[in-house]
């Protein structure tokens, strides 16, 4: 069983894993979470702006949103990250200091916002036109009817797709290492890779991979949960009723209907 | 115009009367792109009266209603609400004065019945939320839905949903109510209840424009009936004039098919 031993030594060397574990937890996991969460929040906010611009009646908002989306969705993530991370390095230095970390987060957010914008846009467009019309007929402005009625319904419908995008952000956060991070700024992938190079053994990378799964798998199940919940709906279970019940309800109810002449 | 009410007059008096405004259309023309769907429609609706608009599908009835609250902007002509033109005013302000009820209810599915009614009260009129909810429950009680204030639309029957929609429009205290085939999507058994509710509004002084296929309702409740075809008013008058002595061949034909 030589090959089995080789596999275990290469991928599942628990000694090597245990050695890198403190770093993975204290540095890698922490930074991956910081990058992912920051990029998710920024990307969602930007994405909502892009989506609302994209469905605007005004061409001056729609066209820029379209170009933005095509650009950041059409380029490889690694290229965008390098262009932004290195292209704006000097500017970033005067604002954030020498670390490329903030630029990495911004680049990831821009990429994510292009996808999230499209997800939101699809959701908002899927809401029945009558919803907006009902709002407008009640005297609500376009902005209010969007903010209070149409957008919340649209967002709820695309939650599963949105969580998928969050998972993609967690995975893409590993690309930030291309910008050259300080030792304390390394995320899961870089910590695992460094240890793998030092020990000549892939087990630290496998350990890093396990941490990614710890983050992404629960998210995947969250998607399924949402999907089930929204597909089956939340209608209250009720016994079969007679239409007469409602006829009676009306007859008994109101001064408005009293003395009817139909 | 008001039907005398003998037996239940005390109940009716408990509910405050409405103050409907007059409405006048002058040569109203509306178009979708290059296609004119409404041509030179003129119509006068006295305060507190009910006008029923009948006619085949595609004759421009719904478009007419949508021109009055400017959900679709008129191409030419004028609409006067309480004597003043509505064109050139802020459409949002105009729409707080005109209630509209839709064929498919268009209730907000993620809001309960009372939240549906209360939403525009706080979002448009700036009423404190607690007060808006209290007023919403009161309006729902008036349409017989006090028990179901916390139900979402999907837990309500079509008739109940449409009554919530009527309560939602009434809560804004409009001067005119527009009904766009309000009973066309309802169970047959529930149609009468909603029509009775609408008739009650008319008796309490609301100015109403009702697009309907319910000829019985038009005959009994309307002060004025308007028959439309191909984007034009073919004939208008009292229910007796239109239903018993139709002058135009087109209306005679229409009535022979539907009655």
TrEMBL record, chain A:
Principal place of residence: membrane
Subcellular location as annotated: Cell membrane
Transmembrane segments: 20-50, 71-89, 101-120, 166-184, 204-226
Family classification: Belongs to the binding-protein-dependent transport system permease family. HisMQ subfamily.
One Pfam family per UniProt: BPD_transp_1
Domain ABC transmembrane type-1: 29-223
Keywords: Amino-acid transport, Cell membrane, Membrane, Transmembrane, Transmembrane helix, Transport
Protein name (Swiss-Prot/TrEMBL): Polar amino acid transport system permease protein
Membrane topology value: Multi-pass membrane protein
Superkingdom classification of source: Bacteria
UniProtKB/TrEMBL annotation, chain B:
The protein, known as: Polar amino acid transport system ATP-binding protein
Ranges where the ABC transporter domain occurs: 23-255
Matching Pfam families: ABC_tran
Mode of membrane association: Peripheral membrane protein
Gene Ontology molecular function terms on file: ATP binding
Keyword Membrane part of the UniProt annotation: yes
Highest taxon of the lineage: Bacteria
Location of the protein in the cell: Cell membrane
Annotated InterPro entries: AAA+_ATPase, ABC_ATPase_HisP-typ, ABC_transporter-like_ATP-bd, ABC_transporter-like_CS, MetN_ABC_transporter-like, P-loop_NTPase
CDD domains attached to this UniProt entry: ABC_HisP_GlnQ
Family to which the UniProt record says this protein belongs: Belongs to the ABC transporter superfamily.
Keywords: Amino-acid transport, ATP-binding, Cell membrane, Membrane, Nucleotide-binding, Transport
Chief location category: membrane
């Amino acid at each position: 069983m030589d090959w089995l031993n080789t596999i275990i030594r290469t991928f599942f060397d628990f000694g090597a894993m245990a050695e890198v574990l403190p770093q993975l937890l204290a540095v890698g996991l922490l930074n991956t979470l910081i990058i992912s969460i920051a990029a998710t929040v920024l990307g969602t906010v930007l994405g909502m702006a892009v989506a609302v611009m994209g469905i605007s009646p005004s061409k001056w908002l729609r066209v820029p949103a379209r170009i933005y989306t095509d650009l950041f969705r059409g380029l490889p993530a690694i290229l965008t990250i390098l262009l932004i991370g290195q292209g704006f390095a000097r500017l970033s230095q005067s604002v954030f200091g020498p670390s490329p970390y903030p630029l990495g987060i911004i680049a990831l957010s821009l990429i994510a916002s292009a996808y999230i914008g499209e997800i939101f846009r699809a959701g908002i467009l899927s809401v029945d036109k009558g919803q907006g019309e009902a709002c407008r007929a009640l005297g609500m402005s376009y902005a209010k009817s969007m903010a209070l009625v149409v957008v919340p319904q649209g967002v709820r419908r695309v939650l599963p797709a949105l969580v998928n995008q969050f998972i993609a952000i967690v995975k893409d956060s590993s690309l930030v290492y291309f910008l050259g991070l300080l030792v304390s700024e390394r995320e899961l992938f870089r910590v695992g890779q460094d240890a793998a190079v030092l020990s000549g053994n892939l087990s630290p990378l496998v350990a890093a991979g396990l941490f990614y799964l710890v983050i992404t798998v629960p998210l995947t199940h969250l998607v399924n949960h949402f999907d089930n919940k929204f597909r089956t709906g939340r209608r209250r279970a009720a016994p079969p009723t007679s239409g007469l019940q409602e006829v009676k309800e009306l007859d008994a109810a109101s001064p408005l209907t009293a003395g009817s002449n139909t | 115009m008001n039907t005398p009410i003998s037996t239940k007059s005390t109940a009716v008096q408990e509910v405050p009367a409405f103050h409907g405004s007059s409405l006048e259309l002058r040569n109203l023309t509306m178009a979708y792109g290059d296609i004119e769907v409404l041509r030179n429609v003129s119509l006068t609706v006295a305060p507190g009266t009910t006008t029923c608009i009948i006619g085949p599908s595609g004759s421009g009835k719904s478009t007419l209603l949508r021109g009055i609250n400017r959900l679709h902007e008129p191409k030419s002509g004028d609409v006067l609400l309480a004597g003043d033109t509505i064109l050139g005013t802020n459409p949002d302000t105009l729409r707080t004065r005109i209630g509209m009820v839709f064929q498919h209810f268009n209730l907000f599915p993620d809001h309960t019945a009372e939240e549906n009614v209360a939403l525009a009260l706080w979002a448009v009129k700036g009423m404190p939320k607690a007060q808006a909810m209290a007023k919403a429950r009161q309006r729902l009680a008036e349409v017989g839905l006090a028990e179901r204030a916390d139900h979402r639309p999907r837990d309500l029957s079509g008739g109940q949903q449409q009554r919530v929609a009527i309560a939602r429009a009434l809560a804004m205290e409009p001067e005119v109510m527009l009904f766009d085939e309000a009973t066309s999507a309802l169970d047959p058994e529930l149609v009468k209840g909603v029509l009775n509710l609408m008739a009650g509004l008319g008796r309490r002084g609301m100015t109403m424009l009702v697009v309907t296929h319910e000829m019985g309702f038009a005959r009994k409740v309307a002060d004025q009936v308007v028959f439309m075809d191909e984007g034009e008013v073919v004939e208008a008058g009292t229910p007796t004039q239109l239903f018993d002595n139709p002058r135009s061949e087109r209306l005679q034909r229409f009535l022979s098919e539907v009655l």
